[in-house]
Structures are given as structure tokens and as C-alpha cells.
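Reviewer 2 asked us to include a model.

Predict the structure of this chain.
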Amino acid sequence: MVRSSILWDPYCLAYLSWEDIEALMLREKEPPRRRVYASRGGLLNLDSMSSHCFRRQFRFEKADFPVLVRALKMPQYITSAQGVRVTATEALCICLRRLAYPNRLCDLQEYFGRHYSVVSSVSNKVLYHIEKNFGCLLSNMTIHPWLKHSDLEAMSEAFFGTASCMKSWKH
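Predicted model (C-alpha cells):
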């Protein structure tokens, strides 16, 4: 309650009925509290996450993750379309989590403590960064000396022989 209110004056308060006091209290407004946005700090804490949990959530080993961030040449920060700055590590985690399992954005919002629009924007920006920098590696699979035609055939046969729903390039 604001100290300038009539309710803080003991002389005026003595002349008021309970109904008047209740009406005055209902009229009093608390100052609006500042909103703490979910996107302000995020909830991801990789240090407290076990290696097993990390692998289950993101499909990569926790020890290999810093190497992956460097290998993908991730920028130090990624800024979402909403203006939220996210570290490269968190941005890659958001993207990997989105790719590792079919999640709704509202579920990822709870997991990362970021608004679903931020999660979507960051994930898309990470995928764009990877495609822009490394898409040339996938445009022509015949230019890689380590990838032989016989290896691709063996992989195709392995997928075709299983009950996999993936359509391979050969069949």
C-alpha cells in the first residue's frame, strides 16, 4: 500500500466503517511488478547435467560438445529475431534438441526457459549457419575421397535390409 493513502492516517481510519476500509483497500493498486521474461537468462545448465543425460537429450557426448561448437565455427552469440542473445553453446543445444526428438516448441520453451518464438528463431539461425558454411559438402557426394561408392552401396543395403522407414538413394 502507498503511504500517502488515507488508510495510513489513524485519525481518518477511526471514522471509517469496515465496508469503507474494504472499498478503499480494493481501490488501492500495488505498483506493477516488472515482468521477468522467460528469455532473459534461460534454464540450460550444462555443468550440472550428467554425461548420460546430455547424450540422451542432445545425441552427442558431453565431452565432445566443445569440439563440435568449434568445428561448426559457431559465432560466440546468436541473436534471435526477437533480439535475444544466446550463447553458441546454448544455441547449438536448442537446435540439437529440436532435431533429436520431435518436440513441440512449447515443450522446448519449458526445457530451455526461453519463449517458443526465441527457440524457433535460434534453431533456424543455427541450421542456416551450418547450411551456409558447410552445405557445399552435401551438394555433391562424389567429391569426397573418403566416401567411396562401395561404402554408399553397403549403407544402402543395410538400410534396405532393415525395417527402416528411410528411403535410401539406391532403392
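Residues 46-139 form one domain. The mean pLDDT is 83. We have added this to the supplementary material.
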